[in-house]
Design brief:
The chain is mainly α and 115 residues long. It has a single domain, classed as Death Domain, Fas, CATH 1.10.533.
Length: 115
């Protein structure tokens, strides 16, 4: 699964992802609905080091599930194909949970009756 793949490369991602790459990932994940405005803002605007922002982003996305993790991997491949290759990432299959990475913004997952 994509989340396990991100866990495997998390420490390398934290070291190697540039600030510009992180900002582009945040924007694209917001556009996809993976991140909420508040989540993107808290990662982007808080007084965090680049490495702390990268760690917070990857942890946040992993908590959201497989599809969210896959979207991060896919966007990284488009934004920075060299880093994507260095990390040894591959493509994955869909399936996202409705969880928030911010404990203050947790949503209840929808039941199958809600669909």
């Amino acid at each position: 699964m994509a989340g396990m793949e991100l866990r495997r490369v998390a420490s390398q991602f934290v070291v190697k992802a540039s600030g510009a790459v992180l900002h582009q990932l945040l924007d694209r994940l917001l556009e996809d609905g993976v991140l909420k405005d508040e989540e993107r803002y808290s990662i982007r605007k808080e007084m965090l080091t680049r490495a702390s922002k990268a760690r917070r982003l990857i942890d946040c996305v992993i908590k959201k599930g497989h599809t969210a993790s896959k979207k991060l991997i896919d966007h990284l491949q488009k934004i920075d194909p060299v880093l994507h290759h260095e990390l040894g990432l591959t493509s994955a299959q869909p399936g996202m949970s409705g969880l928030s990475c911010d404990p203050n913004l947790l949503e209840e997952p929808r039941s199958s009756a809600d669909h």
